[in-house]
Every structure is written in structure tokens, then in C-alpha cells.
Design goal:
Helices cover 37% and strands 25% of the residues. By secondary structure, the chain is an alpha+beta fold. Helix 2 packs antiparallel against helix 3 and helix 10 packs across helix 11. The two termini are 39 Å apart. The structure holds guanosine-5'-diphosphate and manganese (II) ion (MN).
Length: 379
């Protein structure tokens, strides 16, 4: 789950990271009042759960409260990458000399949280990562020791900071790491961490993604979920207890079990196709759940064929077949289906599909090849 900038920065602040003392407005008038209270120049920032707001015109400086109101009027209601801006953050404007990137991510290969930083932070960091990866420094943190002072100081030095900034940087790096661990995050990022004219450091932007699987430990974070900003089908999937992740391909996959779902995606790729999603309907899925899953898959206009791969254990193949037929009857999809049902009640399930004139495959290889052909219109 992604948090808004203002939420992420408040959390960082609780862990000792210096952040601007801003407030959130939902109307231009409110933005003016906040700017009035702050006094001096402010920055008006769109609160939407996507990056690149600056480039999209969603971050604007304002010298006076009147100007803040005007900028808020421009930004509220703006469409940024398909999301409508409903809130703006009004922060005191920072005096930016330099922009540093600082992030904590999980490095699965190293099985560590890795601190990444670059002296070339700011809105072009993706470009830096692509063209000049050496400009991004990485330090892995031992989970039992946590962020050590020497690691943060080493990073501060690599970033070319002045000695007087080593301590403040260490406090920020440690705070960000602790915020990451304390929230069960997948990502905690400050971009930019700015060096101000007086040499002080300030976290001007904040981004945090928390692990959905850790949310049960953080009811305070769980309630921050912004349903307005979530893909409606991801919301639907979560409510139906389906694990669904949308991807860019053209073959919709409906599978039970995360491992089988990954194997299915791999084999689709192997035969020259590309999966449109990861979808695990879980164990013991009934007809209704299958119908919801199908509706979610078909909501993606890029889907050219659907591959259903079910291993019947607790899940019964005839239940899945009934669910599929019910869903197909309701949704009336215009894409071809390839169905593989094996395990508990597979004969019954296959018979139901055959009656309705749907091809079933025996092996996964066969099913994947059929799905790839179907997506190309060759079946
Ligand atoms: P993003 O584009 O969504 O990452 O939004 P950011 O909050 O990172 O803002 C984008 C850029 O706007 C930053 O990299 C800064 O260059 C600039 N910016 C943001 N806040 C301020 C501010 O308080 N003062 C000044 N001068 N520039 C700012
Ligand atoms: Mn940013």
C-alpha cells in the first residue's frame, strides 16, 4: 500500500527526520489560510499516489497566500497520470542548493534492506539510474545490527557532504531506516533530500510503500488506505481475498496457488506469450470467487486470451468449472479461453467445460501453447 507524501513525511518526522511543517488542504481557500499561517513563500503540492508530480505541473511555488490559493486552484482537480488531485500539501518553501536521493529498499538477492543514495537526486533520478548507475551508492544493512553510524557516515562522505553534515545525515539515514522497519515497509524514500542555503538538510519529498502483509500489525497505517486512488479492480480483488497484480501482457491468467501462478506466467513467457496479470484465487475457491476473478481479468482491455490453470486439491475442479461457466454467462467475454483442470473432480470439471464447448488442455505446456496461439488469433 502506498502512502501519500504528507503521510510518509509525518512518519519520517516521528523518526527524527527533519521535514517541512506543512498542512493539507482540500480547497483553495484552505490553502490560502495555511499559507497565511506559515508566512513566507510556500510550495503547493498535489497529493496523488504517483511519482513525477513536479514534471506534470503538480508542484508549484507561491510567494504569497493569494498566490498559494491560485496555485491550489490550478492543482486541485488536475489529472496526473489518470488520478484526480483532491488534496494539496502546503509546505514552507525550501531554499534548495542541492538535491540528494536517499532510499531504503529490500534487496532480495542480498536478503537485506539496502540504503541507496545519490548526489544527483531530484526529478531525474530514474534517468541517473538508467544512464549513470555508478552515481547511485548502495549499502546493505544487517537486520540484527540495524543501520550503523559508520555506514551512514560512509554514505555521507560518498555523497560529498561537508563534515558538519555527517551527523545530521546519520540521523536522517537512521531515522529513515527505522521508519522503514517500524512500518514493515517495502520502500521508504526521500527524493529530494535537500541541502539548504545554510547547509541544513531537509526531506522535501517522501514516499513510502508498506507491505500489505504487515498491515495487520499497523492498524493506524491500514486506515490510511486511499480507495479513491487505488485501481478499483485491485480493491475488488482484495475484498474478495484474491491476490491480483496487473501486468502489461495479453494473456489473462487465473490460477490457484502463488507458486503455480508464477510457474504459469513463466511458461506463458517460455512459449512466446506475455502474462496480463498474476492472479491467485487461493485454495478452496468457490464458484462466486471464480466469477469475481474472471470479471477482474476481463476488466483489462489488453487481455486477448484467458488461461485458466487449476490444480484441484481443496479446490474442486467441478466447482471451478461451474464458476467459470456462470461468470462467462454473466460477463459474455469476447476473448478465447484455454482451460486446464487437474486434480480433485477433474473429470467432472472437464465434462462441464466440454458440454459448453470450451477446450481443455491436459498438460501445462499444452495449455500455455494453446493460450499463446489463442492470443495471436491462431486458435
Ligand atoms: P515529485 O516530482 O512527485 O517527485 O515531487 P517533489 O516533491 O520531489 O518535487 C519535485 C521538485 O520540485 C523537487 O525535486 C524540487 O526541485 C522542486 N521542489 C519541491 N519542493 C520545493 C521547495 O520547497 N522549494 C523549491 N525551490 N523547490 C521545490
Ligand atoms: Mn520527488
Amino acid at each position: 500500500m502506498k502512502l501519500h507524501e504528507y503521510q510518509a513525511k509525518r512518519i519520517f518526522g516521528q523518526y527524527g527526520v527533519p521535514v517541512p511543517e506543512g498542512e493539507v488542504a482540500t480547497t483553495p481557500e484552505e490553502a490560502r489560510e495555511i499559507a497565511q499561517r506559515i508566512g513566507g513563500p510556500v510550495v503547493v503540492k498535489a497529493q496523488v499516489l504517483v511519482g513525477g508530480r513536479g514534471k506534470a505541473g503538480g508542484v508549484k511555488l507561491a510567494k504569497t497566500p493569494e498566490e498559494a490559493e491560485e496555485k491550489a486552484r490550478q492543482i486541485l482537480g488536475m489529472d496526473i497520470k489518470g488520478l484526480t488531485v483532491k488534496k494539496v500539501l502546503i509546505d514552507p518553501a525550501a531554499d534548495i542548493q542541492d538535491e540528494i536521493y536517499l532510499g531504503m529498499i529490500i534487496d532480495r538477492a542480498r536478503q537485506r534492506v539496502v540504503m541507496m543514495a545519490s548526489a544527483e537526486g531530484g526529478v531525474e533520478i530514474e534517468e541517473v539510474a538508467a544512464t549513470n548507475p555508478d552515481a547511485i551508492k548502495k549499502v546493505a544493512v544487517d537486520p540484527f545490527l540495524g543501520m550503523k553510524g559508520y555506514q551512514a557516515i560512509g554514505m555521507a562522505s560518498a555523497l560529498g557532504l561537508d563534515k558538519s553534515q555527517f551527523r545530521p545525515f546519520t540521523k536522517i539515514a537512521t531515522g529513515l531506516y527505522n521508519a522503514f522497519i517500524g512500518s514493515d515497509a517495502e520502500l521508504a524514500e526521500i527524493n529530494p533530500l535537500v541541502v539548504q542555503g545554510d547547509g541544513s538538510l531537509l526531506a522535501v519529498d517522501g514516499k513510502m510503500v508498506v507491505d500489505d502483509n504487515g498491515l495487520f500489525r499497523h492498524p493506524d497505517l491500514a486506515e490510511k488506505r486511499d480507495l479513491d486512488e487505488e485501481d478499483p479492480y485491485e480493491t475488488k480483488a482484495r475484498e474478495a481475498d484474491l491476490s491480483y497484480i496487473k501486468l502489461d501482457g495479453e494473456i489473462g491468467c487465473m490460477v490457484n496457488g502463488a507458486g503455480l501462478a508464477m510457474a504459469t506466467m513463466d511458461i506463458v513467457k517460455f512459449y512466446g506469450g506475455s502474462p496480463a496479470n498474476f492472479l491467485d484465487i487461493g485454495g478452496g475457491a468457490d464458484a462466486e470467487k471464480v466469477a469475481t476473478a474472471l470479471e477482474i481479468i476481463l476488466s483489462d482491455p489488453h487481455v486477448k486470451a484467458v488461461l485458466v490453470n487449476i490444480f484441484g486439491g481443496i479446490t474442486r475442479c467441478d466447482e471451478v468449472a461451474k464458476g467459470l461457466l456462470k461468470a462467462i454467462d454473466e460477463v459474455k467475454p469476447d476473448v478465447p479461453f484455454v482451460i486446464r483442470l487437474v486434480g480433485t473432480n477433474e473429470e467432472e470439471g472437464r465434462a462441464l467445460m466440454a458440454e459448453a464447448n470450451f477446450p481443455t488442455a491436459r498438460t501445462l505446456a499444452e495449455a500455455a501453447q494453446m493460450a499463446v496461439a489463442a492470443a495471436k488469433g491462431e486458435l
